[in-house]
Predict the 3D structure of the following.
Amino acid sequence: MKKTIQRRLLSAAVAVMTVMVSKTTHAVNYQALVDADTRVFQSYYQKEFPDVKFDDFANGVYAIDEDARKQWMEMEEFPPYELDVERGKALFNKPFANGKSLASCFPNGGAVRGKYPYFDEKRGKVVTLEMAINDCLVENGEKALPWKKGDLARISAYIAFISRGQVVDVKVNSAAAYKAYLKGKQFFYAKRGQFNMSCAGCHMEYSGRNLRAEIVSPALGQTTHFPVFRSKWGEIGTLHRRYAGCSENIGAKPFEAQSEEYRNLEYFQTVMSKGLKFNGPASRK
Amino acid sequence: MKKVISLLSLLVLIPGGSLLFADPSSSSSLIDQAEAVRKEAAALEYEWRDTAKLISSAKESLEKGQKEESDKLASEALRQGREAVAQAKFMEKNWQSMIPRK
């Protein structure tokens, strides 16, 4: 009886030790899991559009629609977002009441687009560029700006403009970051709304095909070129404004801009665009 | 007999007593059911675009005395809410099978 108890205690101790050792020596490599997803995701588009060069996916629908591309390139000669970038620059350098400015919060003269979105381990959430801008304003006693359009989109446009060419390389290095990534991934693939549609349904399976009068853009590269001046809006707007529009289109109630749902979606989508270059702001139909 | 009538009257008058006699197909009950299911769908992050608007319109119609129209709107909201909840539960289990492959 005594020997049986001793043997059981010994087995339990060995099991605990094994778990502890495996936890330290075989920590989960979240980045490797995410990189595997990214390869599958990017390969989907490269098979779907074999004639499109990888870098060109950063141009959205204009990478796959030749006629629309010609019009877009003409429009880019006098970009409709030019005044927004200028205004964004002025706002970026405008002193706060405390004498500091947005420039005090963002290093490298504000050329930081490539750093966002990232998973903030201390706050336990995804931080987007727009969120960081408003955080800086609030921390310095200024009023936060509305998320979807206006001056926040203009400041974001200026930062994107001076960051053009930075390569997308969003890291997923912890269990918490991976959880946020998975939530974004689930959001992207799950069907929702009255029309039972998903982001993937439109921007993977239907990308390159006509949906009413428009050709549907590929999801690969969608997050590289925001904020965008959209002809339909007649003004510049943020990625989350576009997300809300997509939700409406499929008959789902949109989430708030900068909600956890949309931030995680942006995180997932930007991870998937690894290797492309940030090229915002852009003009879109 | 008098005692029975008194007891029934008491049940109707006491708070909540009227619920014992509520018609589950009444307009206000339909609206309450639709609102409860809408909230459930929202908690699952799957609320549909028009459900809340339908419920608001059903309430307005009821206030105007348009019971038939109110019931029609509330029933549609209830259907949407139930489908949204079913969609959420199905997607929670099956979203990975929705990943397109090439």
About this structure: The longest helix of chain B spans residues 67-94. Chain B is about 70% helix and 0% strand. Helices of chain B lie at 2-13, 27-43, 51-63, 67-94. Confidence is low (pLDDT under 50) at residues 7-22 of chain B.
